[in-house]
Amino acid sequence: MPAHTPAPVPSPAAPRALRVALLGCGVVGTQVARALLEHAEDLSARAGAPLELVGIAVRDASRPRDGVGTVIPRELLTEDAESLVDGADLVVEVMGGIEPARTLIRRAIDAGAFVVTANKALLAEQGPALFEAADAAGVDLSFEAAVAGAIPIVRPVRESLAGDHVRRVLGIVNGTTNYVLDQMDTHGLELSQAVKEAQELGYAEADPTADVEGFDAAAKAAILASLAFHTRVSIDQVAREGISSVTADDVAWARRTGYAVKLLAIAEQTSEGVSVRVHPALVPLDHPLAAVRGAFNAIFVEADGAGPLMFYGQGAGGRPTASAVLGDLVSAARDRLVGGKGPHESAYASLPVLPPAAAVTRYQVRLLVADRPGVLAQVAGVLADHGVSIDTVRQTAGEPPVGGAETGTASLLLTTHAAREASLAATVEALDGLEPVREITSVLRVEGV
Ligand code: NDP
Ligand code: HSE
User: Fold this and answer.
1) Alpha-helix runs per DSSP H in 206-362
2) Residue in 336, 333, 328 with CA at minimum distance from that of residue 93
3) Which of 111, 148, 162, 270 is the 20 to 30 Å CA partner of 13?
4) CATH 2.40.10.340: does it fit domain 18-149+320-338?
5) Domain-by-domain residue ranges, the chain?
6) Under DSSP, is residue 376 helix (H, G, I), strand (E, B) or coil?
């Protein structure tokens, strides 16, 4: 009997191309488009189906722009974002802002498209409604690029640490302000000059106030806190203070006393709930966060089982951010091909989000006081009255008496033990009204000790 010859297995039909709509062709969008066109074969092989860039929505398609007409065919540009979204399998939103980004993402989700966004401002404000819509439609809404640019942090916190208990997240999550503070520290630049440089380098948001005043970092802090603590945190629940009041003198003083000034995003779980805040802080020079230079970002995550973890890399800029967007896009394409969906939003813990006044931290207060006997005791008395404990005091000579005044001034540098924000605010107010206090030069929090 002849050996049985198995019938040839029909080769599975090649999957059809997935249609990718790109919303935005600015700093990030240009790099996403370039990669989709220049590395189409690799990306398609990794995704499991060809990824076809079918169009790029912009505000003004006639404006000359880098790469368009060469790498990026001009015909791909359109001002009709809605029609572009309607025909897409995968939508990448890198236009920024709340509207029309929100409506377009919602339109894409409702039509069954998988969505990738880098838009932290939108997620920190409207995330829950969009995640609910994505769950209902059975599609992915991915956002790795929305926090810390190229650094994989969303996926590690949401997926790799899903079996652990995160206690604290502490990070530098805004490249612009880190660049600005670093330039002020190392080159003595003024804040405005350094901001201008950051804009030219493509780090800053369209409106750099979002960076300088801490809104961008607050949006990222809200997203990170939501993921870390399985609790919905919106941007308006984040205590926020930017760097606009940080002076070159503060930065120089910090260095003289062993610190670097950094804009930190801090999210921690206490026995009372979740505290989320963004503010400039003094970080000891021997702490790894003090060594984060330029537009780089770094995030510490402290978890019960894993212990401390650190994530470091480029937090802004076109190519680094496009890397995270493309990673999400390949993942979304894979999910779409198998008819599955990535992780759902997890908000089951629903912990209380604490008001700003409940935050507990250490402070460094710099004062100019009259240089005469008993002043230090008066100052110490005010702190004691408010239950704020002094860790160290350092006095340096100020100005000698001038114009017939009885006393000159001395500069006092007080570092406190951990105290409640509310107690410190009341202390500063009382010090301001104390007769020998000539000026409260600065009040900065101390973190990472
Ligand atoms: P840009 O301002 O450089 O680009 C925005 C793009 O969106 C432009 O091409 C613009 O069109 C287009 N656009 C804006 N509004 C509309 C609209 N109403 N209709 C059609 N197109 C529109 O922004 P970025 O690339 O810097 O940032 C994009 C997103 O990525 C933002 O959410 C940002 O927060 C986020 N992000 C940015 C990072 C960065 O380093 N830049 C890092 C991480 C996240 P036109 O060109 O015609 O003006
Ligand atoms: N403007 C942001 C920054 C871009 O400076 O970090 C990255 O989100």
Assistant:
1) 209-212, 215-229, 248-256, 318-338
2) 328
3) 111
4) no
5) 18-149+320-338, 154-314, 359-446
6) helix
Q: Which CATH number fits domain 154-314: 3.40.50.720, 3.40.190.10, 3.50.50.60, 3.30.360.10?
A: 3.30.360.10
Q: What share of the chain is helix, strand, coil (3-state, %, to 5)?
A: 40, 25, 35
Q: 190-218: per-residue pLDDT in tens? A: 888 888 998 888 888 778 899 999 999 99
Helix-helix angle 27-38:318-338, to 10 degrees: 60
> Would you identify the CATH topology of the domain 359-446?
Alpha-Beta Plaits (3.30.70)
The per-residue pLDDT for 8 is 61
List, chain by chain if needed, residues with CB within 6 Å of any ligand 2 atom.
149, 174-176, 203-205, 211, 216, 315-316
Distance, CA of 14 to CA of 432 (rounded, Å)? 74
Residues with CB under 6 A from ligand 1: 24-29, 57-60, 63, 81, 94-96, 100, 118-120, 145, 149, 202-203, 205-206, 316-317, 321
**Pocket probe mutation, ligand 2, options 153, 173, 176, 180, max atoms within 8 Å of Cβ:** 176
Q: Which two tokens stand for residue 328?
A: 């999400």
CB 276 within 8 A of CB 237: yes
